[in-house]
Amino acid sequence: MERGFQQGPARSKRCEDKAAARADRKPAKRDHAEKGQAIEPETFTAAVDPTGERSWMELLFMSFTTLSSTGLGDVIPVKSFGRALVMIEQVVGLAFVAMLVSRLVGLTVLRGRIRRDAGDQR
Q1: Which of 10, 54, 58, 92 has the greatest number of beta carbons closer than 10 A?
Q2: Of 75, 91, 64, which Cα lies nearest the Cα of 37?
Q3: What is the pLDDT of residues 72-88, one digit of tens each?
């Protein structure tokens, strides 16, 4: 029988150990990067311990630096799923900055019009 037609997924001992370790942990709030790592393990790597699992704080740091357009590169995506997730975060971060700037400009223009209209009524 060919491997592709076997019943059930073929799992390594390492994957089973990781799954057992995850089951023992308390569920916590997860950012997008950690969800990506939960969906596809070993999606992200880092300069320190590149083969180990990334902690929640490391992935939160990566998400923050991506959303803020800092992009330090301490934690990087190595699989296509993680890269797609990071690209979405980059677009969201850029859109947030653009909306913030446009809102501030809009409020400044509105305040100038209100002052000008108040001066015309005197």
Answers
A1: 54
A2: 75
A3: 778 888 888 888 988 89
- For the chain, the structural domain boundaries read 13-91
Residue 107 has pLDDT above 90, yes or no: yes
May I ask the CATH architecture of the domain 13-91? Orthogonal Bundle (1.10)
Question: Which residue is it, tokens 């569920």?
Answer: 27
Question: Helix 56-67 and helix 32-39: axis angle, to 10°?
Answer: 120
Measured between alpha carbons, how far apart are the two ends of the chain, in Å? Answer: 92
Write phi, then psi, for 69 (nearest 5 degrees). 65, 20
Contact of 65 with 71, CB cutoff 8 Å: yes
Residue found under tokens 């057992």: 20
Condensed to tens digits (0 to 9), the pLDDT of residues 11-45 reads 455 555 655 555 555 545 556 666 666 777 778 88
Both tokens of residue 94? 């850029």
Q: Which residue type does 10 have?
A: A
Question: Among all chains, which residue has been given the structure tokens 């073929």?
Answer: 10
